[in-house]
Design a protein that fits this description.
heterodimer; A: 308 residues; alpha/beta; Rossmann fold; globular; B: 101 residues; Alpha-Beta Plaits; two-stranded antiparallel ribbon; two-stranded antiparallel sheet; 4 strands; 16% strand
Amino acid sequence: MVLSLKELSSEELYAPGHRLCAGCGPSISARMALKGSRGPLVVSNATGCIEVSTTVFPYTAWRVPWVHSLFENAAATATGMEAGFKALTKKGLPNKHIDVIALGGDGGTFDIGLQALSGALERGQDFVYICYDNEAYMNTGIQRSGGTPLGAATTTSPAGKKIPGKQEYKKDLLGICIAHNIKYAATASIGFPNDYITKVRKGIEVEGPAMIHVLAPCPLGWRSEPSNTIKLAKLAVQTTIFPLYEVENGKYKLTMKIKNPIPVEEYLKLQGRFSHLFRPEFKNVLEAIRQGAKERWERILGLCGESS
Amino acid sequence: MTEDEKPLGERMKLPWRQMPIGGTAFQPGSSTEYKTGDWRIIKKPVIDHKRCIMCLLCWIFCPDVSITRSPDQVEIDYYHCKGCGICSAECPVRCISMVEE
């Protein structure tokens, strides 16, 4: 099942007039996620760019019930709502099934919200968690997070003469989620809307927790052109830096096959946060990024039973 | 201007005792009222409808929901368009150009 663009509803559950930057990737990811919905739903949002900019009091950009509680507990709030709906259904109150979507940024998922997410996944609650990954705490002014990749300059991992930006690799979030033996987990990119929306729908349809990790470029923090947002989201996949795959009931499947990967430099050179890597002294970091991407890609290929 | 004609942001400037508990917003999608079109700097997108193939890529990629879709054509909503240029960059037939305002 792949949903085509023409089949999607033209009804907008996500309204214009929000205060996110021009060319915002997370905004696209939130809108596409709602396009994948199948009926009544509620959204639980962690603190982050989306939360702050879509709901500036008294305005709201949501046409679905939406809750924000704290930074760390998007998953816990979703859990509570799901349990509440279950209890009400037992009393015969809502006559429809209500889907629960939790939405969190990489800060609210990789770092701050990880224990609430882990708890919700372990309890097997029926909800979809969507992590829109813009690879740093962009809302508070570009601080490094567990999702920031190696070599990226942020305000708390600045690039200087000796230090090449962030010195650690990105955390394998989906690996952590898959280890909970959940029904459905997938990576997605906003550059491939059909794939992403189909994955959101699959996540909603499974009975039990589902996790979707979507890459959403941020023009402000990545120091890229706003018009390049989608191009970067595509390049991340085509350079094999961000492999697209899904895990359904423990079975891995590669959803985007890359026959001839584009060199990683093509992806890096469009972003100001990596500009220092092209200086001769940081050649080894560039090589480490290339090597890291290659190793991850081969590991994923192996898990999916594909040959390179 | 009467009280009802004022923008929502003005009407809801309430003393704290009258604020809704939890800062609840009661009007779904009320941000539509807010003009983000004046964020555009220099350029705005213009569609050449003759060359448009209705692939809907601009519609799905727009971060500001500023491309509206009807069965036979797509239109740009300049009241909300922030002029990021994603639609122009991603159009497969290059029929959206960024024009100086």
